[in-house]
Amino acid sequence: MKRRAFLSLIALLLAPASTAAAARSRFSRGVLWRIHSRNKPSSHVFGTIHVPDPRLAALPAPVAQAFASARSLTLEFTADGHAREYFLEAALFQDRQTLEDKIGARDFERVVDRLAPLGLSREFIRKLKPWGALINLRNPRGATAGAWQTLDEQLLGGARTRRLPLHTMESVGEQIFTFDEFPMDSQIALLRHALENEAELIAMAERTLEAYLARDLDGIWQIQADFVRRHPEIAPHNAVFVKRVIYDRSVVMAFRMQRQLRHGDAFIALGALHLHGPKGVLKLLEQDGYRARRIY
Predict the structure, then answer these.
(1) Residue 12's closest CA among 198, 249, 215?
(2) What is the extent of the structural domain holding 284?
(3) pTM for the full predicted model
(4) In total, how many domains does the chain have?
């Protein structure tokens, strides 16, 4: 089960709690920020988008320059074989419950049809929890992801080549907790909605990537806000999703990255939406006494 599928879906489904507040924030544009702390070398925080695409085949020059001077790399999460197996097991019902029981025969067949190109068997899909199915929904029929690395993967490869110390801000258990404690009615509602609106979500993914390439964090949020306004039936479920996956995790990551920031010369990469607005990690760092300056 590939983590990039989950993160791609986040980019499609998240919406801001208040676009008016977002518009007033100085953390509305920019994906690379220099972080200053007292009497320590500065560090950099880079907002990524966790999708493979040829337009992301190389780090932008300012990002590559900042990374080249770094003495450590911190990512949200990295998965070894054990972590992947642990995550996969957690995404499956371990009792008599089935996905078909949760969403009904019609929607179950639609999930099977969508996930079959990934090589997942019918019996395996039957045991997926709704969130396990949701994070695998993407566009497998036209996917060309295998030819390209995400920005996070490029950074990880560069760090290994240079033998940089590697740190993470989350454990696999914490990632599982984020989804396993997500209310079942919201899991089901968002899964069904993704099945019903596949074409719109695919188109939205392209607009989201374009906004990211323009380094327009407000634009990304506005795309998602417009989507929820067009589909108010998912608004309450989406609000829970945003709180758990963006806001709550931003608080944790802003705290945990500070260990490397205190050493200085750190390069920290996380999803760009965690940078945005008054609840993002940049604002949280400033509240803890750091200074953030946009570089790119």
Answers:
(1) 198
(2) 3-86+128-294
(3) 0.88
(4) 1
